[in-house]
Amino acid sequence: MGLPAPYAGSRPLEIVDLELAQAGAGEMLLRVRAAGLCHSDLSVIDGSRPRGMPMVLGHEAAGEVVELGPGTKGFAPGDRVVLSFVPTCGECAECRGGRAALCEPGAVSNAAGTLLSGERRWGELGGEPLHHHLGVSAFAEHIVVSARSAVVMPDRVPFEIAALFGCAVLTGVGAVINSAGVKAGQSVAVFGLGGVGLAALLGARLAGAGPLVAVDRVPAKLDLARELGATDTVLAGEDTVEQVKAATGGGPDHALETVGSETVLADAYAATRRGGTTVTVGLPHPERMLSIPAVSLVTEERTLKGSYLGSCNPPVDVPRFVDLYLEGRLPVERLLTHRLALDEINEGFDRLASGECVRQAVVFD
């Protein structure tokens, strides 16, 4: 963590052979078939999202069940599954209250770098215990995961597309549908057009939003946003807020920030109309602070809210979003811009850091 870019030279990710223990109770051994490169992975690499090291990185994946641990139910060898980066216990107050994304044991195990059981299944590296990444550790040919991290996926969905449902689609589409509650005819602005941001754009179009404004600093991403349904695009700069307000007749009903920057979040909030809602899904460094006019929350009846995992319940929302994809109403395949071999992964993160891609996937043959 913290090695300098370009990563093709500094090589923060090293390919090694590791020992993997057998799956425990409620766990499964999976063969990973595809794994997406997400900005949340990059945030671990550059140190803006500190995690325990050393770590087997990666959290957005799809694969096949190889073996079941003792007492594991609901799956069978050969099942195709997509993985969620929040294992949901189904028993804590948050899970019982319908807020699976905030699962307490899931949050504890993710922070500790373990599986939901509190155990690690990786062997040591150089005498140090290896951490799991968000219960998944997707950048590996085989992994052990909690069954609570997995959802069965139809055979018709290619693995490299299926992987995107575990993070980009859940987070982006979920933020629009679940967190913001966008309704037909409401205006929406999406700040940041990575995989999550463009998934949010797809979700807003699905909801019937309009005007639908896309904001980014990369012109090619604005071109893609227009192809995916944006009615207006804004090249981010000093007058971003004014341009978004002009495109939406005074500000959007809903503004979504997906960058993980407190300054971009401040712009999204400033652009939101009176009575509107600003939703953030980005992950800034824990020490970064946001400053807004506090009185505006009252006098303008504004709402500022966070959205983690798109406020989704993966066993419910993944099948729902997959059905929409299979119906042609959620063209998730448009988010995938690059397919990589595992030994190209450091170069992939250079591409992600420079904004040259939307979503990339390591494909294991």
The SSE string, one letter per element, is HEHEEEHHEEEEEHHEHEHEHEHEHEHEHE
Rough outline: globular
Q: Helical segment tally?
A: 13
Please outline the major beta sheet. Answer: 7 strands, mixed
Helix content: 25-40%
Q: Report low-confidence residues grouped into runs of 5 or more.
A: none
Structure report:
The chain has about 375 residues and is an alpha/beta fold. It has two domains: about 5-170 and about 310-365, Alpha-Beta Complex (Quinone Oxidoreductase, Chain A, domain 1); about 175-305, NAD(P)-binding Rossmann-like Domain (Rossmann fold, 3-Layer(aba) Sandwich). The protein is about 30% helix and about 20% strand. The chain contains 13 helices and 17 strands. It has helices spanning about 5-10, 40-45, 95, 105-110, 160, 170-180, 195-205, 220-225, 240-245, 260-270, 295-300, 315-325, 345-355; strands at about 25-35, 55, 60-70, 80-85, 125, 130, 130, 140-145, 150, 190, 210-215, 230-235, 255, 275-280, 305, 335-340, 360-365. The strands form four sheets. Strands 1, 3, 4, 8, 9, 16 and 17 form a seven-stranded mixed β-sheet that branches. Helix 8 links the parallel strand 11 (about 210-215) and strand 12 (about 230-235). The longest helix has 13 residues, at about 170-180. It is globular. The two termini are about 30 Å apart. The mean pLDDT is about 95.
